[in-house]
Amino acid sequence: MSKLVPQEKYEKTKAFHFWRWLSGTKDPYLDHVEMKEQKEWKEEEQTIQDRMNERQMIHDAVYDMGRNKKQRLFHGIYVAVAIIFCFLLLVILLYTVSNLPPTGSPEKAVNNEVPERYIEKGLQETGAVNIVTGMILDYRAFDTFGESNVLFIATVTVLILLHYTKKDAAAKKEEANDRAFEPKNDTILQVCATILVPIIILFGIYVILNGHISPGGGFSGGAIIGAGLILHVSAFGFVKTEKFFTEKTYKIICFVALTFYCLAKSYSFFTGANHLESHIPLGTPGAILSSGLILPLNICVGLVVACTMYTFYAMFRKGDF
Amino acid sequence: MEILEWVRFMIGAIFILIGLCIFIIEVFGIFRFDYVLNRMHMAAMGDTLGIGCSLLGLMIFCGLNFETFKIIMIVMFFWIASPVCSHMLSKLEVTTNENLTEHCERRDDLAELERELEEEAKC
Amino acid sequence: MLVFQLILMGFLIVCAISVSFSKNLLNSILIYMSFSLIMSLIWVCLESPDLAITEAAVGAGVTSLLFFTTLKKIHAIKIEQEQEKKEEDLHE
After folding, report:
1. Global pTM?
2. Which chain C residue has the Cα nearest residue A174?
3. What is the pLDDT of residues A231-287, one digit of tens each?
4. Which H or E element spans position A31?
5. Number of structural domains, chain C?
6. What element of type H or E holds A26?
């Protein structure tokens, strides 16, 4: 934690007193409570060996298939139940599928009413020329919100599993070895990257901004921007990239984008459900600044996807930003 | 006017056919050669010359409009990215392969090589 | 156009089978990449360019990159080379 206030000044503040009381170093009734340093708990070699032997013995006794009748019975029942369950599931699923209306049947609501509505009134209601974008970011916006959240959760999981801040000698050596067979400062690649990276990122921004006019949108544009960032990293290394993209940047961008998405779409759904006017201008179809909320939502999704792609690569490669 | 259209079609078709022939040679070469550097040479040829020829044919079909500009951008992208790709792969091969001298000659001293090449040029 | 699509479908099946049957992990990643590219071509044929762009960028680009880094991280590529060497020694 970084402190803006120097240590001596910080010790006089109320926050410090509260924190001291909370962590138990000073009690208001008993005054200073000195924390004694405790000895490091060490197990003897013999006890470790004994414990392992014991565990192995118990394990052998329990899982001794040849002699243990109970275990064998359980194993047999387990296999039988698993097979029966699989077949039952198969039968239920097949039965359900056989009861569905056949693909392309005219009585299905998905085949007549829904697409009719989308195609006929899509442009008028959402303002997006590209019907697909109008569908995924207006009619079914919460699906896309869920997808963005899935990406965010995946990144968080990867951060939990692969992130480490401890840098001992072995880790540093491994990290240096990680780039042993790679171009550390390859001039040809660097010159190529200086030409290509801006073009790739610009193309990604173009795809995102034109999501409601031409094919494209947040996901594809975000993936393109992420690929450009990865190219930048592999050409210039993590030191250069850390100047504009760190863990903090990721946190801020993801938080702001997801929160804005949630609030904006909640507002629009609330007004739509209660038959209120949403006061969001739809604009003229075909212009870049049109179709209401779709453009900002596209930008949000694109930012989340680009950050996710880059973070995945950084985590897999180095375990740190 | 019709003759001009036919000429355009013929030129475009010839370019696309040349491109396709180069692609066929590329695929044949990739499976024919054994060593990595030889195979990569074939792949790089297809990526630059083959793509250039076939997209030039497409440009001639298309005429002069915005699509042509997009195709030119694609060609530029491939011509910048693909040779760099081959360069990186060959560098990786040279640095990691321990038995490199079995397949090809290796020169560490570049200055000497340049001197020799100059002498050969003089002769 | 239908013939072209059918040929692409055939490639798709060949790729899908050979991914699971190739012994080298690196090879299967490369075949997976080509699978994604063919899939994006099929999306273009089915008139959904949105999906085609996403498939090409994510499936062929970023996912295979992540696979490669993972293989490198778990030292799978190195081990395979050692195994090949051992097998060659056995054959000799």
Report:
1. 0.71
2. C73
3. 888 888 777 888 888 888 888 998 999 999 989 888 888 888 888 777 777 777 777
4. strand A31-32
5. 1
6. strand A26-27
